[in-house]
Amino acid sequence: MSDHGAPFGHTPDESPTTVVDRIGLLVTNDPAIGDGPLGIVRDAALVLQGERVVAVERAGAAGDRRVDVEGRCVLPGFVDSHTHLVFAGDRSDEFVARMAGAPYAAGGIRTTVDATRAATDEELRALTAHRQHEAWRAGITTLEIKSGYGLDVHHERRCLRVAEELSAQTTFLGAHVVPPEFDGRTDDYVELVCGEMLDAASPHARWIDAFCEVGAFDADQCRAVLAAGAARGLGGRLHANQLGHGPGVQLGVEMGCASVDHCTYLSDDDIDALASSTTVATFLPAADFSTRQPYPDARRALDAGVRAALATNCNPGSSYTTSMSFCIALAVRDLRMTIEEAVAAATVGGAAALRAPHVGTLRPGSNADLVVLDAPSYTHLVYRPGVPLVHRTWQGGRVVGA
Ligand code: NIG
Q: Which is deepest, 86, 132, 211, 385, by most CB within 10 Å?
């Protein structure tokens, strides 16, 4: 089996190899290596060297060091392509009110902006690092992290500087909502976002994002933000069609965004546009759960050939979770994905949404990012909802969560 990765099978790297051995069921996400779209290999071993996978072998493969996983299921580490991890404060009161019938209208974002601006650098760093550890324990090995709770030049840059200490996948979301000091002057705020704020943010960001929704920013304002980001070399992503139908999905496709996120409301034209593009539809079902929105019709999108990702959208307002397993379970039960589609969306789909070719797969050359489940199959992620099934998380060849 190692032949499948010949270019990486005989690396000149002399560092010791680690064999993750006696894997009962291995998901490689490479149909050239194993069965079906998930590229499943049974009774397998993964050979790691440094930060990379160097071979997929039969159980019992030789190596310098051996870790016996005793028949457990191993998957690529989850790729969480949408989080708002840098924030301070708590909005559980808002959640309680929502469960009693209040609607979600994103107005609470300003509450988090106040708390985030008031936090010290050390507090923000510690809060964000704590959430990253929580994500590792949940099997997430790649985290996209957005700003968006600073909303002025100083605090947006500050949030991105915290984010870039933890991830290379950082996103400038100055166009999250209009801060109170710009009430009634949305165009002036967009000018700030596209000018001075982008100057401060772009050295710390890989992506630019905007919230295209009634009450946030319209299509022309989002187009201006995405274009300004592109002119600085930032890739585009967009919050689109979360709270109702709108122009966001088609704008994201028009602007060549890597991903349009939420997609809770999808028209036939939205689906056609996505299906004939390279833009990934990222579904965030934990937000639909927490805001009592309807679930998106992912089945219709997938059947039309749309590429899908699943992400947690971890944030204090609409989705305070780091559990990708929960998102997978919702995606299967309520978005009507098959279990295999949901697992792919949470791994290689997230990698496509971040245009990150070395994550989301386990084949020679992939990052040595993996999740060992305390279960014989990934099916248990859905069959046993709410149970913490992650036994170990490896990132870059070392254990980061247990
Ligand atoms: O992706 N929709 C906009 N942004 C976040 C929610 C932020 C909040 O409510 O604090 C989201 O759901």
A: 86
Same domain? For 123 and 223 the reply is yes
User: Does residue 336 sit in the same domain as residue 197?
Assistant: yes
Q: Given the CA of residue 243, which atom of ligand 1 is nearest to it?
A: 2
272 and 386 both lie in a single domain? no
Ligand 1 atom closest to residue 87's alpha carbon, by position in its atom list: 10
Measured from the CA of 91, which atom of ligand 1 is nearest? 10
SS (H, E, C) 210-265: EEECCCCECHHHHHHHHHHHHHCCCEEEEEECCCCCCCHHHHHHHCCCCEEEECCC
Distance 89 CA to ligand 1 centre (A): 14
Mean pLDDT of the residues in the chain: 96
Please state the domain count of the chain: 2
Ligand 1, CB within 6 Å, residue ranges: 84, 106, 108-109, 112, 211, 239, 242, 287, 313, 315-319
Single-letter amino acid, residue 88: A
Domain of 127 in residue numbering reads as: 79-353
pLDDT confidence band for 6 (50 / 70 / 90): very low
